[in-house]
């Protein structure tokens, strides 16, 4: 691997000053866990990095549908190193359920970076989450999930609806002892690996649309030990090969109702909030992997008589990397911090929870944009080598391209953003809370930008629904950019002047549409990975 990657064998936590500064700012218990994260950073840079490359290039999951006796088993066969690593990493899901925080879990997920590997851990976590909050009678299954003895999955998507859960056709009937599900799930992450899934289905007599859905816990095996569902096939994907995604068929599948059957859509949306935060953390983790490769490349490679990092246009690109990475990661952990404060609420949720959900839509959408853009730039900075699959850098762009799609693409995030926005009171209160660091100090252009965003959001809320939907994605990205600039200025209060500079650059570039100013060329604290102001 050393011949194929600059980042392999290095400590991915120790090198990440931005992550350290952000965790120190948002997580009061960070210093008590810093040594643990340092140990994990070494694992992320060696065992994780090596295994995900191996899975992607040499050993993707394979579906084994029958055993020697011809009996359907529908199991995904994984590389031994892949399976061993998944079991070894199961502990990352424990912190929130054992008195620790979501900051800890998502820091682990970010350091893993690979979205396929982290997806398996995330969907396992989501099943544990549903059991923990709404089905505690299955605590034994939760422990199996958290210990690595079992894997979970979330199966919501159906072929006729995609992100439109209200179009789901899977049905549920109660036979007096258990619920029985019938239908198909078309994008089923973890197919063939899953021991316990959560799935949406419509009970008999329930209304159409999303509010008629209930949430169910589905074990792989029936009570009699036979297979409870079938895996039709695994998908042939561009990337994220470390998660076996497939199609699952339910036929009188035994299932257990989670919570109140009338609240299934609310449980599902709550679960999606967890996975959208994981999507944001994973997207920025991909960015960091690409950045680790790029920073070594621009140090080692020379062109036109100079190291790449000494050229003005390279420093301009590194500035873009630094601004987007710090802004996206700060926004992600601000969303995580808000969720950590509200996650134990139950429906109907409070404004505090809806604010966390709003931040989640902002973070999920914009971090995916950053990941797709920056990994493409990383390939370009490597030149021809960046397009060769044998080296580490090309894969990160393929991996990044799933992040805008998973857990609801930007159109769905925009619609959910619009719906959440309507629940949060006055425009001024919402925007002022998001932009508080830009209003409480002398930020160049800050008040003008905040005033403009207030007007855009107020105008959005006043539009007829079709016109509001038309504008919602643009406004979502504007509010997300405001939140990122504000998060960087907020971070500067504890982590120093570098983040004020990055906040200034984010504000002027993304909200004022200006090119990055040339003073950044001379300021290595902006674009260098190992410098502090």
Keywords, please?
single chain; 533 residues; alpha+beta; 5-stranded mixed β-barrel; two-stranded antiparallel ribbon; 17 helices
Write the layout of secondary structure elements.
Blueprint: H1 17-26, H2 30-57, E1 62-66, E2 72-77, H3 80-88, H4 102-112, H5 115-134, H6 139-147, E3 152-155, E4 171-174, E5 179-189, E6 196-203, E7 214-219, E8 230-234, E9 245-257, H7 264-300, E10 302-303, E11 306-307, H8 312-342, H9 351-382, H10 392-400, H11 410-421, H12 427-434, H13 436-439, H14 446-462, H15 465-495, H16 497-511, H17 524-527
Parallel strand pairs: 3-6, 4-6
Antiparallel strand pairs: 1-2, 4-5, 5-9, 6-7, 7-9, 8-9, 10-11
Give an overview in words.
With 533 residues, the protein is an alpha+beta fold. It has helices at 17-26, 30-57, 80-88, 102-112, 115-134, 139-147, 264-300, 312-342, 351-382, 392-400, 410-421, 427-434, 436-439, 446-462, 465-495, 497-511, 524-527; strands spanning 62-66, 72-77, 152-155, 171-174, 179-189, 196-203, 214-219, 230-234, 245-257, 302-303, 306-307. Helices cover 54% and strands 12% of the residues. The chain is globular, with a radius of gyration of 23 Å.
């Amino acid at each position: 691997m050393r011949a194929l990657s600059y980042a392999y064998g290095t400590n991915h936590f120790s090198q990440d000053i931005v992550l350290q500064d952000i965790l120190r700012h948002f997580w009061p218990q960070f210093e008590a866990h810093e040594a643990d994260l340092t140990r994990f950073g070494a694992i992320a840079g060696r065992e994780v990095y090596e295994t995900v490359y191996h899975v992607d290039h040499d050993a993707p999951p394979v579906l084994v549908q029958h055993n020697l006796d011809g009996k359907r088993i529908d199991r995904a066969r994984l590389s031994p190193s892949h399976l061993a690593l998944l079991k070894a990493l199961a502990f990352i899901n424990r912190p929130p359920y054992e008195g620790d925080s979501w900051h800890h879990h998502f820091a682990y997920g970010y350091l893993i970076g690979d979205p396929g590997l982290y997806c398996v851990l995330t969907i396992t976590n989501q099943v544990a989450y549903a059991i923990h909050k709404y089905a505690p009678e299955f605590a034994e299954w939760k422990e199996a999930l958290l210990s690595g003895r079992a894997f979970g999955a979330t199966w919501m998507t159906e072929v006729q609806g995609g992100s439109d859960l209200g179009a789901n056709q899977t049905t549920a009937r109660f036979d007096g002892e258990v619920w029985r599900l019938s239908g198909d799930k078309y994008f089923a992450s973890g197919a063939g690996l899953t021991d316990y899934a959560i799935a949406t289905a419509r009970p008999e007599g329930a209304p159409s649309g999303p509010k008629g859905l209930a949430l169910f816990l589905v074990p792989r095996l029936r009570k009699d030990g036979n297979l409870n569902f079938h895996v039709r096939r695994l998908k042939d994907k561009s990337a994220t090969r470390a998660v076996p995604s497939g199609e699952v068929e339910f036929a009188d599948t035994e299932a257990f109702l989670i919570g109140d059957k009338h609240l299934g859509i609310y449980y599902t949306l709550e679960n999606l909030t967890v996975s959208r935060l994981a999507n944001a953390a994973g997207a920025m983790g991909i960015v960091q992997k690409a950045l680790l490769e790029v920073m070594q490349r621009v140090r080692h490679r020379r062109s036109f008589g100079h190291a790449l990092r000494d050229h003005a246009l390279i420093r301009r690109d590194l500035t873009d990397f630094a601004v987007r990475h710090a802004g996206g990661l700060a926004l992600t952990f601000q969303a995580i911090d808000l969720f950590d404060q509200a996650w134990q609420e139950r429906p109907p949720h409070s404004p505090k929870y809806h604010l966390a959900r709003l931040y989640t839509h902002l973070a999920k959408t914009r971090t995916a944009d950053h990941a797709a853009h920056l990994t493409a730039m990383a390939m370009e900075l490597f030149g021809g080598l960046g397009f060769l699959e044998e080296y580490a850098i090309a894969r990160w762009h393929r991996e990044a391209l799933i992040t805008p799609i998973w857990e609801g693409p930007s159109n769905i995030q925009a619609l959910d953003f619009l719906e959440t926005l309507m629940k949060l009171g006055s425009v001024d209160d919402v925007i002022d809370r998001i932009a508080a660091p830009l209003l409480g100090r002398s930020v160049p252009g800050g008040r003008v930008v905040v005033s403009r965003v207030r007007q855009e959001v107020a105008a959005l809320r006043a539009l007829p629904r079709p016109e509001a939907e038309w504008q919602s994605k643009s406004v979502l990205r504007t509010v997300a950019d405001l939140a990122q600039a504000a998060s960087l200025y907020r971070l500067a209060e504890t982590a120093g002047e570098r983040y004020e500079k990055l906040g200034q650059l984010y504000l002027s570039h993304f909200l004022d549409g200006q090119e990055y100013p040339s003073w950044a060329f001379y300021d290595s604290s902006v674009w260098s990975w190992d410098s502090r102001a």
